[in-house]
Automatic annotation (TrEMBL):
InterPro entries: MeTrfase_TRM5/TYW2 (IPR030382), SAM-dependent_MTases_sf (IPR029063), TRM5-TYW2-like_MTfase (IPR056743). It comes from Methanofollis liminatans DSM 4140. The keyword Ribosomal protein does not apply. Signal peptide: none annotated. This is SAM-dependent methyltransferase TRM5/TYW2-type domain-containing protein. GO terms for biological process: tRNA methylation; wybutosine biosynthetic process. The keyword tRNA processing applies. GO terms for cellular component: cytoplasm. Residues 58-289 form the SAM-dependent methyltransferase TRM5/TYW2-type domain. One of its GO terms (molecular function) is tRNA methyltransferase activity. Keywords: S-adenosyl-L-methionine, Transferase, tRNA processing.
Amino acid sequence: MRVRRVGKEALAAAVREPWADPSRRPYVEGETAWVPVRDGYPCDDDLPERRPYGGRPFQMIGDTAVVRGRRPTAEEVAAILAWRRPACVLYLAAIEGVRRLPAVETLYGEAHPVCHHENGLCYRLNPAEVMYAAGNLEERALMGRTAQEGERVADMFAGIGYFTLPMAAAGANVHAMEINPVSFGYLAENIEANGLTGRVRAECGDCRRLLAGTYDRIVMGHFDAVAFLSEALAHARGGTVIHLHALGDVADAARVSAESTGFKVRIATRKVKKYGPHIWHIVHDMVLS
């Protein structure tokens, strides 16, 4: 592959140059980027073609590679290092408890805070301290498209701002609640870093005690959310939309809960991602009347 060598800080400008080949991806290592060159233009070097990655699946959170499932072998870690050259490789064994704490093992480098960019937003976190579900990418984007300018939103399990940030960026006024003090610290940092302090009221504590007033939209992004539904319904009105997350279909239980408090409800069910054998991460969109 014919390439030109540029500093990483100049990469964004370089890929817009007439000589840059848009059909190929630049290659970055450290502070240096190699940009593919179109035929007919001079180049600095001719690199061997990179083979497609066929190793153990992983996700990049900032500059950190996170591996799930069974513990990776040394050979699998070496393949990840050769392919993406992450600063750190973490093995995520599980997410534990109501505070959603990651059980991790550091396999390479040192765990550290990162800045993960997604849909024009910056999420700051340490993947060894708090969870980040890459599989919820489209769900986070959907909340940003769904939230309306000026509506009052409750994010009952806000974490580091997974749904709070895109909804606030869309113009909603978000009441963000998070029980884990570590996650809450990153939530407060992310609200400020993304310039959303005027649209988010963040509180640390049990969301059941922090809900206040009536909301136009309630996001319940926790797999045990159905157990908290009665508290959410106490702060809803006709027209409120509740986004209820669960492992598996809990629509019947959600309907019974809503109707027992005097609401009629329309429920649309979406699959977000496969969580395990025959187990799906589900979202029930509940429209109350």
